[in-house]
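Section 5.1 Outputs to date
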Amino acid sequence: MLIIFFTLITSVFVIQFNTTRNFLREHQTTEIDNAVSAVGMALAPYLETGDDIAMESVINATFDGSFYNKVSLELFQENKKIERAYPAKITGVPEWFRSRIEITSITRTSTLTSGWMQLGELTVTSNPAHAYQKLWHATMQLVFGFSITFLFGGVLLVFILSRVLHPLKAIQKSAKAMSKNQFGKPLQVPHTRELSDVVKAFNHMSAQLKMHFEQQAQEADRLRIRAFQDPVSGLANRSYLITQLQSWLNGSSKGGVVLLRVDLIKDSYEKSGYEAGDKLVEKLANRIKSLTSDNFTIARLTQAEFILLAPNTSTSELVSLGRSMLHMSEELHSDPLDVSPVQAAVGVVVRNESDTISTILAQADNALTQARQQPKEPLTVFDNAQQAATMGKLQWKALVDEAIANNLFRFKFQKAINDNGETLHKEVFAYIQKGEERYTAGQFVGAVEQLNAGPQLDMHIIEQLFKKLEDDPELGPIAVNITQSSISDTGFIRWLCNKMKANQDLSERILFELPEISFIKHSNDTDLLCEMIHQNSFAFGIDNFGHNFSSVSYLSKVLPAYVKLDFAYTTQVDNEVKADLLTSITRTASNLSITAIASRVETTRQINKLAEMQVKGFQGFVVDEMKREEAV
């Protein structure tokens, strides 16, 4: 429309310009014809008498340099010629204008007579200077006027079109958001008839897609509850606990379990029915959930028994957790005078290297039995000599500070591959090498988190990794874990934001891995960090996805690049119920363009089975073995 408007304005300008030029040419012709006629009549009496002085006076008075270029009077009787020449000076008109626009001089010749006798011949040549000046002045007025008109018309046209096409821009913006699986409020139906139907159809499609994703998330939640979650308390069930215990016992991690039995809940079930008992269970579970951590697993073992699995935790910390659980159970019983006996007991078991699932649960049950015989504080600890030498939180913190100061951190990488065997990224595992001793992150991160020293640790590790990426262009992409305490630290978030801004060229070579627990406990801080990562064109993933039994619906809000599934979801792929759960979760992630990565993959059969369930990424022992075989 602007092009058409410009063409129209240009056409009018050209027409007006040509009209003005033609008018000036005709005016010049008319003026010289009138001048020749008038001068011929004035000269006639003097020609008859031969008064040369009078004839020169008439010529000088009539013609001047602004309109005429040359005047010539030839006298036939005297054989004499009177000539006047005026320089053709054209001022105020650019040379390029005169060279492109031609206005030629006009010459008129008239024979002067007296009766039948020819007395002389008058020749006058016009000066085009005046016509050029008038035409240039008119051109400037036209250019200025049409420019103002075009600018005003263009602005008005843009304003009108922006108002008319505003619904289309809203559709465009909403379509971009929907392509990223982000669904906002329905668009307002415009008054434009042609666009109203489009907006209505678009709103309907957006609502259908949003409902589809919500239904998928709800389906995954229902299947998760069915497979791994206790429906009353919302904690893990026995099946999920056994999976976590097996993984813990297979590794080198220390720590222990805390078993809580609440007789008040059992009595409530027996005396008041299931509804009253369920209310107490739900109330206690909500309190116990405050103890959860990214590494902890809290489960409801039986009707009135609750167990907390705490890897990499010292004996004193296990006792502290046990006392907290005991105190929470006491709050269920209304006793203003504090005279009734405690209707709960806690057994704490510190892991031994030779423990199995059956032995550690048996020890916990025995510890619980002994605790019930101690009315003052019904809490018993089963410990062993190996744990007595375990370092405390402050010692671990001092070791980490020393490692940061003396650059004792080392890194190893574990690949995550897709179903085609291509590398997705390499996850970074940091450890401290002090002399001959090696300390893995699993040993000291728990203590660092409890002392809120995660930001210093994360900043040091990230700084080292950025340097490695700059020094080695072939390295990457790599994924680095962020501790939970760092996500809640505004100073760390500000530091990381500045770091990303200063290293935009590394945005494709490093990813940040956030623990799932941070999206539950510190959702506002985590959402802020995710938004800053997106704004700086970096990407992030979610670790231990599904460990804390949160709804998967938050994925559409934060949009990570990948989710690393908790290994409990990928170890029992032959179980139909758990296979359905895994398929539902991976389908939801896939529809949001999020890669689902299975961790701790140990066999190629497991890879093939997981691939059938739309798992697109694999990480674990078997992946390392496959890469070593390829290298050989």
